[in-house]
Write a structure and sequence with these properties.
- It is built from three helices and seven strands; from the N terminus they run ααβββββαββ.
- By secondary structure, it is an alpha+beta fold.
- It has a single domain, classed as Chitinase A, domain 3 (Roll), CATH 3.10.50.40.
- Strands 1, 2, 3, 4, 5, 6 and 7 form a seven-stranded antiparallel β-sheet that branches.
- It is elongated.
Length: 170
């Protein structure tokens, strides 16, 4: 009897311990995957709030900030297939975005994805940067086009053409 009881206790303890295993959040998995991608490709990037960025060309104009309306040129791909551009400006026209006063906020008009909101605040007018954005800060589970970018970590190459309007003082 004592042996059976001991076996039951050990089995119950094993089940309890296995169910306590900590799992990573989607954001943690995304961030780890981006870090691995950067390391595997010898890319040096700076991290800001789980968005990684490289300054390609330092701008000479004003620093971008939340509350600004900006004109940008961009192209977007995924870390899984960086040569396949799934989104970009039409022709050579810049796209106008409003950056909400609070990160992640929305406003009337087009608001960029959360990761791009973070990234744009690292730029100066006239600058070019590359952003590595976790899927959690992009489209997550959403299917936004015929391209399958669900849970895809994104690469955005952005040129900040102009800060059109400032809604707050810096």
């Amino acid at each position: 009897m004592k042996l059976n009881t001991l076996i039951l206790i050990i089995a119950a303890l094993a089940i309890t311990l296995s169910s306590c295993k900590k799992t990573k959040t989607q954001l943690e998995e995304d961030t780890d995957a981006i870090k691995s991608y950067l390391a595997a490709n010898g890319i040096n990037a700076t991290e800001l709030s789980n968005v990684f960025y490289q300054t390609i060309t330092e701008g000479t104009g004003e620093q971008c900030a939340l509350g600004d309306t900006v004109a940008i040129k961009y192209q977007a791909s995924t870390t899984e297939n960086p040569t396949n551009i799934f989104a970009k400006n039409e022709g050579n026209k810049a796209t106008i975005y409003f950056l909400p006063v609070m990160l992640g906020g929305t406003a009337n008009g087009e608001t960029p994805i959360y990761g791009l909101q973070i990234g744009l605040t690292t730029m100066k007018e006239g600058g070019k940067s590359r952003f590595y954005i976790p899927s959690s800060y992009a489209y997550g589970a959403s299917k936004i086009s015929t391209d399958s970018i669900q849970y895809a970590n994104l690469i955005y190459e952005v040129e900040l053409c102009e800060i059109i309007r400032r809604d707050k003082k810096h």
